[in-house]
Amino acid sequence: MPVENSRVKGLYKLSVEERRSLVAEAANLSDAHVAALAAHGELDETAADRMIENVIGTMSLPVGVATNFVIDGAHYLIPFCLEESSVVAAASNMAKRCLSHGGFTTNNDAPVMIGQIQLLDVEDHEQATTHIKDAKDELMAFCNDIPSRMIAMGGGCKNIEIRRLPTPMGEMLIVHLLVDCRDAMGANAVNTMAERVAPRLEALTGGRAHLRILSNLAGHRLARVQAVFTPEEMASDGTREDGLAVIQGILEAHAFAVEDPFRATTHNKGVMNAISSVALACGQDWRAIEAGCHAWTTMADGRYTSMSDWTQDSEGNLVGSMDLPMAVGIVGGASKVHPAAQANLAILGVETAQELAGIILCAGLAQNLGALRALSTKGIQAGHMKLHAKNMAVSAGAEGEEVELLAARLQAHEGHRTQTLVESWLKELRGE
Fold first, then answer.
1. H helical segments located in 52-148
2. Is 195 labeled as catalytic in the residue annotation?
3. 384 an active-site residue?
4. Which domains, from first to last, does the chain contain?
5. 84 is catalytic
6. Rounded distance, CA 123 to CA 121, Å?
7. Catalytic residue (one of 33, 269, 386, 413)
8. CA neighbor of 411 nearest in space, from 395, 427, 430, 391
9. Cα 245 to the chain's mean position, in Å?
10. Among residues 84, 109, 195, 232, which one is catalytic?
11. Distance of alpha carbon 186 from alpha carbon 353, whole angstroms
12. Please, what is the average pLDDT of the chain?
């Protein structure tokens, strides 16, 4: 049940151990729960306490490595951090099936983020827009007149755009700062510029600057990926006829996702199974990436649709592509604080944020194809349940060799595979 009172004054002043004890008492935690919170792997409590507030422990997730990825002619092992079985296996499998045409190719925009300043109470929007345009060079110079490694490396505010936005609370003037963030995700730099330039925009427009913050819809920072899969590579038996049938099924499944938002949501969840997992493994703001990717699907006509695009070329090959906003960084943030994130970036060996963006998108396209192929052939449960069998055994209370025995029996079982069934098998195994 919930705790009696969630208001804990001065929690942030306590040590991690003191906070953990207090929360354990309030929530009536068992010794096992307390021990689980106290255990930590690569992230010690001192580092964790610097990252967020009111830390009481850390929580681990598996990190697996997807194989077979050839991207822009280079080979990559891609770290995934997630709890769901079959995702890493599916991405690795699909990456192996596009090697005839050289693997994945990427083409990414410059790392430009948007900073928004919301101007209210502007009496003359036309005149205000003219004043901002006339002062654009001066405003950009002011934004960039700060000590910054990003600016020294060629980044900084590169343009200013103006939008007039009708709302139920009246028309607003929205100013966009377009900031090249180089190898940073850029949130702090963009927010600093937006707040710094706001008073000057107020003086130019006679309006009142309200919100001053970046947008996570990074429409100027798109990553693009494409891959070609031959019928032979897509086949279950290696024959062209079977491969063409598989491709036809994938195209039919994709058409469903394009037209139906109910299907598109689950379809895109499969894409994000990889994108979010790789982003998390590499210390990125995966929530911002999620929000931007989902929003981007609606930009063409306001309708939620598939993140990916699947077509068939004149030779019968399956061609997959995806264009999504991908705001990532390899300097600053958790990527420089979390030891595992640093290790995972080292596994990738990336040298720029744009390279990381392309890799993440390739993983998303591969995972999407894995789901589409499974759904349009043998169904999603066959492969998923094979890998999920051990989890079901552990959930039933199996230990040691019992886990392997039950998992093997579950995989061989042709009927319905339920948790109740596994629990009954465990009792049978133990002679209960």
1. 87-96, 125-134, 136-144
2. no
3. yes
4. 1-60 (no CATH), 63-108+223-377 (3.90.770.10), 112-215 (3.30.70.420), 383-429 (1.10.8)
5. yes
6. 6
7. 269
8. 391
9. 32
10. 84
11. 11
12. 92
Q: Which two tokens stand for residue 47?
A: 């580092």
Distance of CA 164 to the CA centre of its chain: 31
Catalytic-role residue among 183, 285, 323, 355: 285
For the four alpha carbons of 162, 164, 167 and 172, in that order, the dihedral sign comes to: positive
> What is the DSSP annotation of 2-55?
--S----TTGGGS-HHHHHHHHHHHHT--HHHHHHHH--SSS-HHHHHHHSSS-
From 103-107, 148-152, 260-264, the region with the lowest mean pLDDT: 148-152
For strands 318-325 and 112-120, give the pairing: unpaired
Long-range Cβ contacts of 40-49 (<8 Å, 24+ apart): 41/340, 42/338, 42/339, 42/340, 42/343, 43/338, 43/339, 43/340, 45/16, 45/17, 47/337, 47/338, 47/339, 48/16, 49/16
Active site residue 285: yes
Q: Binning pLDDT at 50, 70 and 90, where does residue 116 land?
A: very high
pLDDT at position 3 is 62
CA 65 to chain centroid, in Å, comes to 16
As a whole number of angstroms, the distance between CA 49 and CA 46 comes to 5
CB 38 within 8 A of CB 57: yes
Average of per-residue pLDDT across 173-196: 97
- The runs of H, that is alpha helices, within 206-260 are 231-234, 240-259
pTM: 0.87
In the DSSP assignment, the letter for residue 335 is G
Q: Any idea what the Cα angle at residue 410 is, between residues 404 and 412, rounded to 5°?
A: 105
